[in-house]
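Notes from the 1:1 (GR / supervisor)

We went over the backlog. Supervisor wanted to see one worked example end to end before approving the batch request, so GR pasted a single chain during the call. The sequence is below; no edits were made to it. Supervisor asked that the structure be written out right there so they could see what the output format looks like.
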Amino acid sequence: MKLPLMPKATAIWLIENTSLSFDQIADFCGLHELEVQGIADGDVATGMQGYDPIDNKQLTREEITRCENDSTAKLELIKSEVIESLPPRKKDTKYTPLSLRQEKPYAILWLLKRYPTELSSSQISKLTGSTKNTVDNIRNG
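Structure output shown during the call:
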């Protein structure tokens, strides 16, 4: 499901400027209902400015009015050609310190000794964060 930009700030604006239920706001912003209630009570996101989803072409006034009149309706994000054309984000790789990088071959060797038939090379490479080629080299060499 697509979420609005800056979901907490959008939730703040929706709480302050609409009569939508906490459940509707939480569902639209991808937050928990208690988190939205905490924002309304002032416990969460204090000092944060609201972000107007109407001015930023994420919602229309008609959509908000429709959901205010029907408490079971869900807010729908406006389809944006710009957002739809963006490629999916790649998963960020974590930095592995040098000391742990030196331990990877030993971890691969230990897994190969303990579980020679149960684990495939691709499973071991995912577990240790190394390449399949490295696992095959250790297995064969």
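Supervisor's comment: The chain has a mean pLDDT of 88.
Batch request approved.
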